[in-house]
Specification:
By secondary structure, this protein is an all-alpha fold. Helix content is about 50%, strand content about 0%.
């Protein structure tokens, strides 16, 4: 998978990062993404690109 989700969360007038992250994950669940797909999109892909081990 070559997709990494990122955002501008935390900027002035934007939701706090944790609140925005919860909202994004909620939308992905509504769209029937699996837990594994969501983990890959929200951290696994970025960790892989950086040569880091993704947290389970």
């Amino acid at each position: 998978m070559n997709t990494v989700l990122c955002s501008d969360l935390g900027l002035i007038d934007s939701p706090r990062p944790i609140d925005g992250h919860r909202e994004i994950v909620g939308h992905l669940l509504d769209l029937q993404f699996t837990e594994a797909e969501i983990k890959q999109l929200t951290g696994g892909g970025a960790a892989e690109l950086l040569g880091l081990e993704a947290v389970a």
